[in-house]
Amino acid sequence: MRSAAFIGVGLLLTLLQSNLFRLLDHVHVPGLMPSLVLPIVVFMGVSEYPLTRGAWVAFFLGYATDLIGIAPIGLYTFVYVALFVLARAAGARLAAQTAAMQLVLGLGFAFVQSLMILVLLAIFGKDPYVPRALYRLALPHVLATGVVSPLLFRLARRVHVATQRGEAMGRP
Fold it and tell me: What is the CB neighbour count within 10 angstroms for residue 8?
């Protein structure tokens, strides 16, 4: 039940993100596009979500991001699963209870996401100029993702709490 809820919320956020550029069109800061799904994936990792289920949810959300966006198939799939595992490994050390910590987590993981995408595009991309053109967009993207992270952590927390009753009753 919880996995399906996170997938549903993640798909809605992916669709919202794919159309958000129309709302931010009047803002003339290139790259000021937050990643709305990344904080959900990080929340699952630092909340000690089960490894196999969390990796599958991250895989599905990454694949949906690849399909809906214009990214090469497999790019966000790999990045989201890797970030979930990294967040899961750091989860015991990081408590995402305060908005300040959620902001820091959003900034940190958005930076790692941007770095991973640039490196993967530089290594596996067909056009060597794409990473050179995209690196200028990384900082506004990281800042925008960090700013929206506390709101998305709160949304993920609500999904987690709303589905907790079904998990406690023994339903997966």
Answer: 11
